Amino acid sequence: MEKILIVDDEVFICENLQRVLSADGYKVFITHSGEDALDIVVEEEIDLVLLDLNLGSTSGLDVLKTLRDIDPELLVIIITGYGTVESAVESLKMGAYDYIKKPFKADAIHLIVRLALETQELRREVRHLKRGSGVLSAAMQIVGASEEMKRIYSQIQEVAKHETATVLITGESGTGKELVAKAIHNLSPRSAKPFVEINCGSLPYNLLESELFGYEKGAFTDAKTRKIGLLEEASGGTLFLDEIGEMDMSLQVKLLRVIEDRKFRRLGNTRNIDIDVRIIAATNRNLKKAIDEKQFREDLYYRLNVFPIRLPALRERRDDIPNLLDFFIKKFSADFKKKVKDVARPALNLFMEYQWPGNVRELKNVVERICIMTDAEVITEDVLPQEIKGNKPKKEAPAGVEVPAEGLVLEDAVSRYEEGIIRKALSMTDGNVAQASKLLGTARGTLRYKLEKYKIEHNDH
Fold first, then answer.
1. Going by DSSP bridges, is the β-strand pair 278-283/378-379 parallel, antiparallel, or unpaired?
2. How far apart are CA 447 and CA 172, in angstroms?
3. Are both 191 and 271 inside the same structural domain?
4. In this structure, what CATH number is given to the domain that contains residue 430?
5. Are 229 and 277 in contact (CB under 8 A)?
6. Is the same domain home to 254 and 347?
7. Which of 159, 185, 432, 455 has the most CB atoms within 10 Å of its CB?
8. What does the alpha-carbon distance between residue 459 and residue 144 come to, in Å, rounded to a whole number?
9. pLDDT of 330-380, one tens digit each?
10. CA-to-CA distance for 297 and 291, rounded, in angstroms?
């Protein structure tokens, strides 16, 4: 059943559209807020959005841009009572599928929605044929709606357009560096060409050299036939060099030459081969430290670091944990034909408190293991691994917390404490709300609300 989201600040319009489209068999979601719309799109895997351009204080065009950043394949139909040629053209330039003015007739809605969903289906079939797989684009496998992940989506979108720019993805193990590399490839003009990957830390120098450059028959003792290297296999597409920080220094020299000259030689051959390939590298090492320790070439670092993308650890984007849990539960529940649907609140609290040293990969493995072992519909504390259950905080009061003998009003005391912390964070960041929200580990919108609540002056950058 296709899922449609209606975003309009007029309740009457939302209810009418919901009635019309539900009668056609679609599952319909409604919201009057652009911010809520973004959450629904991530959580529910929406197929089509009907978006009003005028959402009170929020611009529909801003919401459209963010929706397209989150999911470039999402179809959006603009609806507005303030239709002008300028707004129509602007929304179409930004990727809207079509544009319809209020008031509109039910027949027009039936038709435009049906055509949009048919277009979506055709696009999916084309992608399936191009990639030889029914799997969704890697861009859609990157789950998260936090400010940190919105920044990553924006970077992926931007660098994908520039098909020759080298990219260096950094981040801890398990943060999703390979997914980001695939997303860049799939969203680029190179998407119909090969995406070739190799882990530079998994092979010794001579084998890695052979894999990358290939060799001629007789180039060395075991070279019984010619071998085409990965640089040639990736021609026209993307070569992803995972764990580039583990590459031998001698091979780094050869890779630098390839990036600079856009040509290479097979082992045992004297003829240069021209290549057209984008190189994306990734590492969990601190390459600047490796340069200081003479373990990585500085010139290669700057050649790779044309467009850097740093992936945050999962503990740096805890707001995404519920969405990731929902995504993996749906996946593994379907894979293993189980009926797991949700996480109980006490168990969710433990998921949120755990440090996740293995990042998203560890979270994925935990959910997979639970879905294999349980037959319940809800994940509870008792099925969690001991390392997560053992993370439950102690119950004693923090140091410095006292209750006066005459008593106090708890709500007032908490409010005073909260206001003090917020003022301290703003002082540390020179009034910058974005930086303060990161320092406090809370959403920027939540922090703005509390600033208004406590009448705190700030610089909203």
1. unpaired
2. 28
3. yes
4. 1.10.10.60
5. no
6. no
7. 185
8. 27
9. 999 999 999 999 999 999 999 999 999 999 999 999 999 999 999 999 999
10. 6
Residue reference for tokens 């208004």? 452
Q: Report CA-CA distances (Å) from 35 to 31, 63, 89, 232.
A: 9, 8, 24, 45
**C-beta atoms surrounding 27 within 10 Å:** 14
In a domain, 116, yes or no: yes
Same domain for 276 and 250, yes or no, is yes
148-153: long-range contacts, CB 8 A cutoff, minimum separation 24: 148/312, 148/316, 148/317, 149/312, 149/317, 149/320, 150/66, 150/69, 150/70, 152/180, 152/309, 152/311, 153/69, 153/70
* DSSP state, residue 318: G
- What's the CA dihedral at 270, 273, 277, 282 to 10 degrees? -10
Cα separation, 359 vs 172, whole angstroms: 8
Task: Find where tokens 């959402």 sit.
Answer: 55
Domain that holds residue 47: 3-131
Considering the domain architecture, whether residues 126 and 12 belong to the same structural domain is answered as: yes
In contact, 347 and 380? CB cutoff 8 Å: yes
pLDDT 10s digits, 254-284: 999 999 999 998 898 888 888 999 999 999 9
Q: How many CA atoms lie within 13 A of 49 on its CB side?
A: 34
Tokens of 157: 């979108």
User: In Å, how far are 190, 198, 436 from 242, measured between CA atoms?
Assistant: 19, 6, 34
Tell me which residue has tokens 């700030």: 458
Return all residues near 382 (Cβ < 8 A) that are at least 6 apart: none
Count of domains observed in the chain: 4
Residue recorded with tokens 């406590």: 454
pLDDT tens across 35-76, in order?
888 888 877 778 899 998 877 777 888 888 888 877 777 889
Q: Look at residue 142 and tell me if it is in a domain.
A: no
pTM of the predicted protein model: 0.57
* DSSP letter assigned to residue 187: T
Q: Is residue 21 helix, strand or coil?
A: helix
400: left (phi over 0), alpha (psi -120 to 50) or beta: left
One domain for residues 116 and 177: no
